[in-house]
């Protein structure tokens, strides 16, 4: 194996001419620092870790800065986008790597956690709750994808994975999980990729408070900068070999954890001979020179004078003066620790293309892609129980079961309202849709468009996608119920009862579960006439029934569990959800489902659109 870190005697000043720069000209790196978690303790030095590792890759290994992607506060979708999914390893990192030409370096600083049920290890994304570890990024899945990437780049290239994380359910900041310490997940192993992990199974990974870095990361950087060659098991030939680094990490991480913190931390490292690389850190001493009589290295002497300074100007002057790559890297690391962090431009939520701009949006935010386009609400990812319980009043047993858990993995957007006549008429004017009439006296404008078939709805979303350049579609049946429930488990998002002050349905003749009777308005109402649910969506119960994407299946056995549309079954019939102005409230329950042929049109049927937000 020709590893990621190849030998070189060149300094950065002549890096363009060096074999190392040629070796790593097309090498790629992904550096992930997860610092600010929404549901648990921060990892205070994660951003410092990735900054120091980036400096090491650029100044010591001659990586081109444009080939290094730094992800700060990565979400689950960020990880999937860059590292691939459970079904497809070809994320953005795969697409950037060049077969036969790229080594790949992946680094992660943040929390890891075990799953109580599967006993597997997961990387905790900032939007994942520690007690729901399986919603994090699977370490087994990451290992599988990196092995596939290793095969893709070829046998003369290598993938290196460095994890400054532990998988104990605890952290140096406190307990992450209720079952912390009780599970010791088995970490992936093998010789196909090069793996470093900060601590053993069940152990914590600590921080170096003085240097404001992860303890493991600080030792790793010291080791590759020359300390591993100078250590007891080093041969002091001016080169750090894989065997020397592994021996140094094993001894030094344990020593520093014990001496600095009084704790135990033993890293998980590869076998030394699997690392087919070495780094030249200083010219080897000539056998003809007496090392005792040799004058001290000027760079070492100057570094000793300035390394404790807090002046960035002094450090920069030293860095610009010295040509020794070891001390340039040490100066860069010190500068990175002293320099105030630049204002964060990266969006910590979702950076979404809206029209011709980009906006940072969070769940509940509303946007429009164009004038006259539907108003869209950002709906969070999450998990819910789909279907109705056996004791729900007026449940249609065969159609609404069995109940099953569904995980909506990706944040998406749903129409704040049902598509209106105004929005439909814009499609008609543009030649994308056929004109739809309404009964005399019903009105158009901001009332939901009616007498539209499933085929009509599909024509509208196709036109809207073409007009905006964004991916518009119908909701899946699972997304619709998830959006309608908005975090509730009751028949309606309003609770166990519903009134005609809360939705438009036939309340003159029908009531539900002891709810008082009310009005029957006899037609649709202007969208948004009733309060929104917890996700900010209006008219999910009543007004018009809404077409969704799915083919009809009379029960949920075999239904998708990831929120996707069910595209098998009886596709000559399509699903509708939500109830209408003409029906009693039971038809508007979150779990109620029924079907019609996709060409059906009448005055109670309409639709709502969805938009895909993430890859």
Strands, helices and their partners?
Layout (H helix, E strand, L loop, with lengths): L18 H5 L4 E6 L12 H14 L8 E5 L3 H8 L8 H5 L7 E6 L2 E3 L6 E3 L13 E2 H15 L5 E6 L5 E2 L2 E2 L18 E4 L9 E2 L4 E2 H16 L8 E3 H20 L16 E3 L17 H9 L5 H10 L3 H14 L11 E5 L2 E5 L4 E2 L8 E4 L2 E5 L17 E5 L3 E4 L5 H9 L24 H15 L3 E3 L2 H9 L59 E8 L17 E8 L15 E4 L8 E3 L1 E4 L3
Parallel strand pairs: 1-2, 1-3, 3-7, 7-10, 23-26
Antiparallel strand pairs: 4-5, 5-6, 8-9, 11-12, 13-14, 15-16, 17-18, 18-21, 19-20, 21-27, 22-27, 23-24, 24-25
Helix pairs in contact: 2-10, 6-7, 9-10
Tell me what the structure shows:
This protein has 615 residues and is of the alpha+beta class. The chain folds into 3 domains: 12-214, Rossmann fold (3-Layer(aba) Sandwich), CATH 3.40.50; 289-348, no CATH class; 351-612, paralog of FGE (formylglycine-generating enzyme). It is built from 13 helices and 27 strands. The protein has helices at residues 19-23, 46-59, 76-83, 92-96, 139-153, 215-230, 242-261, 298-306, 312-321, 325-338, 421-429, 454-468, 477-485; strands at residues 28-33, 68-72, 104-109, 112-114, 121-123, 137-138, 159-164, 170-171, 174-175, 194-197, 207-208, 213-214, 239-241, 278-280, 350-354, 357-361, 366-367, 376-379, 382-386, 404-408, 412-415, 472-474, 545-552, 570-577, 593-596, 605-607, 609-612. The strands form 9 sheets. The protein has a 5-stranded parallel beta sheet, with helices on both faces. Strands 17-18-21-27-22 form a 5-stranded antiparallel beta sheet. Strands 25-24-23-26 form a 4-stranded mixed beta sheet, with helices on one face. A hairpin with a 2-residue loop joins strand 8 and strand 9.
């Amino acid at each position: 194996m020709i590893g990621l870190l190849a030998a070189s005697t060149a300094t950065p000043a002549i890096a363009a001419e060096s074999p190392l720069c040629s070796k790593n000209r097309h090498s790629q790196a992904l550096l992930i620092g997860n610092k600010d978690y929404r549901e648990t303790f921060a990892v205070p030095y994660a951003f410092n870790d990735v900054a120091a590792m980036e400096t090491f890759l650029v100044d010591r290994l001659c990586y081109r800065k444009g080939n290094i992607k730094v992800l700060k506060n990565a979400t689950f979708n960020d990880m999937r986008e860059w590292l691939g999914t459970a079904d497809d390893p070809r994320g953005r990192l795969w697409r950037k790597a060049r077969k036969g030409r790229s080594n790949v370096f992946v680094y992660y600083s943040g929390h890891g956690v075990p799953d109580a049920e599967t006993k597997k290890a997961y990387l905790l994304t900032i939007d994942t709750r520690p007690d729901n570890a399986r919603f994090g990024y699977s370490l087994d899945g990451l290992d599988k994808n990196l092995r596939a990437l290793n095969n893709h780049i070829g046998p003369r290239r290598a993938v290196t994975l460095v994890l400054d994380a532990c998988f104990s359910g605890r952290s140096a900041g406190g307990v992450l999980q209720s079952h912390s310490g009780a599970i010791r997940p088995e970490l992936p192993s093998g010789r196909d990729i090069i793996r470093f992990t900060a601590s053993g199974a069940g152990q914590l990974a600590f921080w170096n408070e003085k240097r404001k870095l992860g303890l493991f990361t600080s030792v790793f950087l010291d080791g590759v900068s020359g300390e591993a060659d100078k250590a007891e098991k080093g041969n002091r030939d001016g080169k750090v070999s894989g065997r020397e680094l592994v021996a140094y990490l094993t001894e030094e991480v344990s020593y520093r954890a014990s001496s600095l913190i009084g704790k135990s931390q033993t890293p998980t490292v590869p076998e030394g001979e699997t690392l087919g690389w070495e780094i030249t850190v200083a010219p080897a001493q000539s056998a003809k020179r007496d090392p005792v009589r040799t004058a001290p290295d000027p760079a070492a002497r100057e570094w000793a004078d300035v390394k404790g300074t807090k002046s960035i100007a002094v450090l920069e002057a030293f860095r610009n003066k010295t040509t020794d790559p070891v001390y340039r890297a040490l100066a860069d690391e010190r500068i990175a620790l002293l320099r105030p962090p630049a204002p964060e431009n990266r969006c910590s939520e979702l950076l979404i293309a809206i029209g011709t701009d980009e906006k940072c949006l969070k769940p509940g935010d509303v946007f429009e892609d164009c004038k006259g386009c539907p108003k869209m609400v950002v709906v969070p990812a999450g998990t819910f129980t789909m279907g109705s319980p056996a004791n729900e009043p007026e449940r249609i047993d065969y159609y609404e079961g069995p109940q099953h858990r569904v995980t909506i993995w990706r944040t998406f957007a749903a129409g704040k309202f049902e598509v209106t006549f105004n929005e439909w008429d814009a499609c008609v004017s543009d030649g994308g849709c056929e004109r739809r009439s309404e009964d005399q006296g019903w009105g158009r404008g901001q009332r939901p468009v009616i007498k539209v078939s499933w085929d009509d709805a599909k024509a509208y979303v196709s036109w809207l996608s073409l007009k905006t350049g964004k991916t518009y579609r119908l909701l899946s049946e699972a997304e619709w119920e998830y959006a309608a429930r908005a975090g509730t488990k009751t028949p309606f998002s309003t609770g166990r009862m519903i009134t005609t002050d809360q939705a438009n349905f036939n309340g003159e003749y029908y009531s539900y579960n002891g709810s008082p009777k009310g009005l029957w308005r006899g037609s649709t109402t202007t969208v948004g006439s009733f309060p929104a649910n917890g996700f900010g969506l209006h008219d999910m119960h009543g007004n018009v029934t809404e077409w969704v994407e799915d083919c009809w299946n009379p029960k949920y056995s075999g239904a998708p569990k990831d929120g996707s549309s069910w595209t098998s079954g009886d596709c000559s019939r399509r699903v509708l959800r939500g109830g209408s102005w003409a029906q009693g409230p039971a038809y508007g329950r979150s779990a109620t489902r029924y079907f019609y042929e996709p060409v059906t049109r009448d005055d109670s049927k309409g639709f709502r659109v969805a938009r895909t937000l993430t890859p």
